[in-house]
Amino acid sequence: MADQVARFAKATEENNQRFLDINSVYDGGDLSGKRVVVTGGNRGLGLEITKELVKIGATAIVVCRSSTPELQKMVGRYNVYTGVDVTDDEAVRKVAKKIKNDGGDIDVVINNAGYFYEPAETILEDSLNFEEQLKQINICALGPLRVNSALVNAGALADDAKLVIITSQAGSVEWRSTQNKDEGGDYGHHMSRAACNIAGALQAEELRKKGITVLLLHPGFNRTEMTKKYEHIWDIEGAVEPSVGAKRVIYETIQAKLENTGKIINCEDGLQIPW
Q1: How far apart are CA 172 and CA 169, in angstroms?
Q2: Under 8 Å between Cβ of 109 and 86
Q3: Which of 10, 126, 144, 187 is packed most tightly, with the most Cβ within 10 A?
Q4: Residue 111's beta-bridge partner residues?
Q5: Does the global pTM surpass 0.85?
Q6: Rg of the chain, C-alpha, whole Å
């Protein structure tokens, strides 16, 4: 019993330290030399993840709708695949085959492309937007499923590949009773993340037999354009710069193992998020 208490105390201390300063535990060296695909790697958190991958010596392969000369210079123009919308079945299948034909196997896929409808949606204000809700589900839930499925079926993945899905604690039903209690709202966002989470759990079970690890990550509260609608609470809620969020994502990606496939992890402290 004493040993269990000691291990728990040590783990708690490490998690607290990780929350306060990711640099105290971060070392991206394990991804050096690895080939990593990042969807939506041209802006926001995805761009910071791409920058960090380059710093640690990984080959960053960016799949996005549009690019910049700076991005192409940073990762190499042949490692940027533009004109790809994760809602477009054919475009996703084509880029998966092209990635397979252009280079070696992919070690890690970071599904980062996402969308957050800015106006708040509520029933009482009669502001629900069902079209936008479906758009969010298509991008945030079906998007990673399309990308992962296409890469698997194109034979583009290494035998022990990791499929990372950037999701959100917003998809946790249990957390809704403690966070934003009595508020509701943002229906499309929360539904899209819940759908994303169950899709990830299903992928983990199906792909386990192929030795592929699926990891769902809540990157924490980052100061990006996607969360700018909550700019007024960035300081109150401890929102961090996306460069910090990127290190948190990469750290958890490195820690992921097949025996933990399908888990939803909070990158702020490394703890599992309940369903």
Answers
A1: 5
A2: no
A3: 144
A4: 39, 165
A5: yes
A6: 18
